[in-house]
Amino acid sequence: MGSKPVPEAVLEIDGLDSFYGDFQALFGVSMRVERGEVVAVIGANGAGKSTLMRSVTGLLTNRPEMVRFGTAQIGALRADQIAHMGIAMVPEGRQLFPSLSVEENLIIGGQAGRPGEWTLDAVYSLFPVLKERRHQASTSLSGGQQQMVAIGRALMSNPELLLFDEISLGLAPIIIKTIYEALPDVIGTGMSAVLVEQDITRAVDISDRVYCLQEGRVSLEGKSGEVSREEISKAYFGV
Amino acid sequence: MDWVNAIIQGILLGGLYALFAAGLSLIFGVMRLVNIAHGDLIVLAAFLGLTVTTALGINPLLSIAIVAPVMGLIGYVLQRVVLNRTLGDDILPPLLVTFGLSVIIQNGLLELYSADPQKMSAGAIETASVALPGGLNLGILPLLMFVTAVLIIGALQWIFYRSAWGRAFRATSDNQDIAQLMGLNKSHVFGLAMALSLVVVAVAGIFLGVRTSFDPSAGPGRLIFGFEAVIIGGLGNLWGTLAGGIILGVSQNIGAQINPGWQLLAGHIAFLVILAVRPRGLFPRIDG
To answer: pLDDT per residue over A17-59, tens digit each?
Structure first.
């Protein structure tokens, strides 16, 4: 909640410009996630949310000082190095490994070997249905179950910071509700989280603070309880 | 009985072809790289075996203990320093670079060892055989090579589907970006895959050099056999590759039985027929 006298930043993004080849997708984006905080990033399609996630996880490299994780400058590191430091992501569209079984997907999530409370058993007690289907191909699961695997896979690395990229995309509302009900158990354990969402209501409900991106720039920033719907629509649509 | 003999010898020869093919199949499966230099690397391993054998005065089959780790190291370094830089959305650069590598290896070997055909002698084991009922004789050496090939393919299968390495190979093959997010350095994973491929190549090269004579230009022919075995068996299926190697070996020996000049032709015809009837090979991997 950021209630400490001097809030400690887990993630600090400072004037981030991101490019895909010659195309610039982010323009001077600055953002801060404090320890234990849940930050929502909202914005329309093409606003730069996924680019931001790719930049934080190292799938897109930038100048070193543009992204800081704790005291480390990680803007120019490779994704696997950043994963070892303790950032994990539940990627958009789940993106499980089709050649791996459910259990293998989870095991490979723990590949980085970071110790912590999240183990296979812990993931199975959070999502018991996965234990029944542990030996099945990950592609044989329903969309909601696949999303559980994707979340479990990210948890297995015991990250300090967990990024959720559009976890409600393409899922039935009842499934989205189930997934969101499980989230407090996931991020209530002192983990910090960034939640990228198109569903503004859910994003505002679950987060401590919210950032809105519009055409690659931060168009709104504030405490989730304090920003009004009008401010959000204005920042979201740019009207 | 000549025909039965031809078929049995063909099966045993198929084990060697499967070894030519297994490393090729592994690399294609993990990183979608078609290694045009694969055959030349087999011949390189044979020449390394020759050098080790003459320098130490040991049996060429024992030289595998030295050549295999050396080839593995060459594979890892080659992948990290050269081949990783060619991988991307475009499939042409790796083809061109491995083609160039093929030319370099052939000419390097020519410079070092001359164009003379070489052969390694494994001693008494080469002529030892067991008598089977019906007047058939089974050579101990071809049998040993076949059993080794089956064991190696079984081991590769185990590594690929049961071990942590295999999990990393499959994950990286599925989705390189997401595999990186799991903390897997794809450059390193690809390096390990190439190292494993060239360890198999080392065994194949030594077996080749013991079985027949070889010279620096022998590589492309082995590459074709390897390709054919992979395609006949179906891409991405190692046991299929073994079956592909056996079909190729048997066809060649049946061809040779009809007319000694038809050995290679018969193998290629069998390959073309299977490609026409089953374009994805006999046992394609079921894509999930």
So the answer is: 999 888 999 999 999 999 989 999 999 888 999 999 999 999 9
Residues B5-53 have pLDDT tens digits of 999 999 999 999 999 999 999 999 899 899 999 999 999 999 999 999 9
- Report angle CA A220, A226, A228 to the nearest 5 degrees: 65
Nearest to B178 among A95, A113, A139 (CB): A95
Residue whose structure tokens are 């030295």: B66
Cross-chain residue pair B171–A108, CB shorter than 8 Å: yes
In angstroms, the separation between the Cα of residue B174 and the nearest Cα of chain A is 6
Q: How near does any CA of chain B get to the CA of A108, in Å?
A: 7
| CA nearest to A52, candidates A60, A44, B45 | A60
Instruction: Give the mean model confidence (pLDDT) for residues B194-200.
Output: 98
So what's the ipTM on this one?
A: 0.91
Q: What is the DSSP letter of B124?
A: G
Give dist(CA A92, CA A69) in Å, integer: 22
CB distance A59–B181 less than 8 Å?
yes
What are the chain A neighbours of B179 within 8 Å (beta carbons)?
A: 97, 108
Delimit the domains of chain B by residue range: 2-119+139-277
Say if CB A73 and CB A64 are below 8 A apart.
Answer: yes
Q: B241, B21 in Cβ contact below 8 A?
A: yes
Say whether residue B175 is in contact with chain A using an 8 A CB cutoff.
yes
Whole-model pTM: value is 0.92
- CB nearest to A112's CB, from B170, B183, B186: B183
Distance CA A169, CA B23 (A): 40
DSSP code at position A8: P
Structure-block tokens of residue B237: 């299926």
Instruction: State which CATH number among 3.30.450, 1.10.3470, 3.40.50, 2.30.30 fits the domain covering B2-119+139-277.
Output: 1.10.3470
Say yes or no for a CB contact (<8 Å) between A97 and B179: yes
Distance from CA of B180 to the nearest CA of A (A): 5
Kindly report the CA angle at A198 between A163 and A211, in degrees rounded to 5? 65
